[in-house]
Amino acid sequence: MTQYADPVVDTPAGAVRGVRDDSGEFYRAIPYAAAPIGARRFTSPAPHPGWSGVRDGTRPSPTAPQPVRDFGGLDMTPYFGPGWVRGEEYLTVDVRTPAADSGKRPVMVFVHGGGFVTGSTRAALYDGSAFARDGIVLVTVNYRLGIPGFLDLEGAPPNRGLLDVLAALHWVRATIAAFGGDPGNVTVFGQSAGATLTGALLATPEAKGLFRRAIIQSGSGTGAFTPEQARRVTTAAAAALGVEPAAEAFAGIPDERFLEILPALAGLELRTSTATDPLAGLSPFSLVLPVQPADALGNGPARDVDLLIGTNTEEGHLYLVPQGRLESSTWADVLALAAGVCTDPETEVAAHRAARPNATPGELRSAVLGKALFGAGTAHLAQAHARISGGRTHVYSFGYRSTALNGRLGATHTVELPFVFDIADKPWLHGDTGLLGPDPAPDGLAARVHAAWVAFAGTGDPGWAAYDPQRPLAQVLGS
């Protein structure tokens, strides 16, 4: 590889040194807000004070405190990254750019997933080299997770992780021109929890003017907790810690203790008389909103934002196959799941069985789970956006089936990411326990998917017709 001199960029907060390679320039661990330490873990993000001299942007950032997550026989390290890498200053962004010049290139801001409790910019899946290669300035964002990020507490603003993403978008608007990006052509895109956060931005008044386009990969426009559901989680957390459910009481508790009590929050009964559990018991944290984002798009910038949105065809497999539950599932398991996530579970299961009469209980359990977590909320959001945006909505369905775990993993949650980032040929994604399995990715699929994302960021057109609510069809990617 060619050796290059390290570039330096002047930003409003101070100068940053990065690295230059064959795909462009890379600047890491740039703070967009002050370090969230002590009581500041439960406040709105504060402006960073800046620095003198040249900041080292060649090394990765610390990460938000987070637990270790285990997906059985599947290696999810490329998705979750290294876990908790300690350090106070983790409200940071990484910037990958073709060149820090006056280019005014399209900007894409990626918000990672991880169930609102894990993930970071350090995950290998978020390698932005291909985006820089294709003329995009890519920004990846760390935000607060778990209790500091999403527990609803008296005396603290709600949805602090979402406030962090908003602060990062303000940073982009003020700073990205120094990295060769166009602050007037910003696309926010996220996956899983990050996609749900992106959907919430569409309904957030404070997000108006901060981005022109959005991409929602396997998120949900109906994935927020109601205030009543959030209170149940807060009550349980306070009881586990032995303190009052208020920010003042939580402020002196170390992050290690917050992680220790997470098992006590797992599996809480969150179904209420008015709402099912939108996360099906998989996480005790989500956004907390009185109205779901899909029902509140008129409050935010959605009307003026182009939207690309979709899901994978076997989302639920990730939560069953690696744990050996796909084959062991029974009809009782299917009905029990449906009872927790559907308002009319018997009708829901009957509809799935009618659509797939030869499916096993495990396959139907996966289908019910995938629809509850991602499918229904994605369809609701796509319909709502298409009705108000005048042809600005594009929908996809990703169907490539991973051959991991003896060919059983399928087109599961997260499997589209290597194709979006055009890194599906990386060895660490393959093998029987790798996300894509032992088989090579189909020729050209990653190039086509990645090109659609790049085209959408540039023009709002991914290469297929806009979504029609009266004829709701999706573009199939993979088969």
TrEMBL record:
Residues 43-68 are annotated as: Disordered. The keyword Magnesium does not apply. Its EC number is 3.1.1.-. Residues 6-463 form the Carboxylesterase type B domain. PROSITE patterns: CARBOXYLESTERASE_B_1 (PS00122), LIPASE_GDXG_HIS (PS01173). GO terms for molecular function: hydrolase activity. The keyword Transcription regulation does not apply. It comes from the Bacteria. Gene3D superfamilies: alpha/beta hydrolase. It holds the Pfam family COesterase. Keywords: Hydrolase. It is an enzyme of class 3 (hydrolase). Belongs to the type-B carboxylesterase/lipase family. This is Carboxylic ester hydrolase. It comes from Amycolatopsis rifamycinica.
